[in-house]
Design a protein that fits this description.
With 378 residues, this protein is an alpha/beta fold. It is built from ten helices and twelve strands. α2 packs parallel to α7.
Amino acid sequence: MTGAVPTDIRLPADLLPRDGRFGSGPSKIRPEAVAALSSLGATLLGTSHRQAPVRRLVGRLRRGLSELLALPEGYRVVLGNGGSTMFWDVATFGLIEHRSQHVTFGEFSAKFAAAVASAPHLERPDVIAVAPGTTSHCTAAQGVDLYALTHNETSTGVVMGLRRPEGTDAGALVAVDATSAAGGVRFDPNQVDVYYFAPQKGFASDGGLWVAALSPAALERVARIKSSGRWMPASLDLSIAVEESARDQTYNTPALVTLVLMAEQVDWMLAGGGLEWAAGRCDRSAAILYGWAESSAYATPFVAKPDDRSPVVGTIDLDGSVDALTVSGVLRANGIVDTESYRKLGRNQVRIGMFPAVEPADVEALTACIDFVVCALS
């Protein structure tokens, strides 16, 4: 914060969004999901994850995700503890045979590449790095057996189209970090072999869990690496996660609250109309946010190309005369939270989560509140 937040700036009640949570993760959790969690408190929470009630919950979640993502025949939903950061280590041990290629265009896409680069049992990864706010695509390269993409770069608000690169070596896999995209951005699952994510963004839950949709080719790769004798810690052994998930359980004890909230969100999405319906909500929110910024005298979308602008995480640069951290601080003092930019990007901007649980009308109210705050600060 560049200075003290003017706490005397009060937003009119009729201007406020109904819900003031716009975080890019953890994100807004619907009150209905919290109510469902409360109703299960005495019968599910605090019980064994090896017994039928919790296994039914895991099975419900796995089936729901298969339907929501329209997974092709033979794809399997696998889950384990630790979040997407943990899954980078899981993939480093259990998915990459020799060499990977990574497209990096922000903080999180670069972190996976860095994790692979430090692994002594793998060859140096091929990294295609582009400037934050832009994106690129994988290019087939000899010897690469896994191509690592990021569906949505949470730090910059850039979305990437997913497609298999042409001319790859036989058996090469495409693995996609979909942590902030899953559930809110359309994609063709036939174009990917590993689509992995965590539940604290589009799936409106707590963190601490990773979920991956694995193709038959990816499942075969997991089994082959395991049979090769490569050492890996049991907690990072993807073959164990595959086996346990087939039994509708996890290798070690999961957070049941996370599972309940995520299952409730998936069911809500399916009841609304599936991924197309959920992505449509995000599209409407994004159209409101970017349309406002483009017509503003002091705000500009950070991502220059409209097709690269994320429908789930919007990054908006503010004019140098307007301090973004002060704006976010005033909003926070008025109950509108988590609009601050990604700290390491270092730009004078606001970052707005527009996941499916966020009402498009609340995004519109947010833009009016930002205008009010900027006017009051001037």
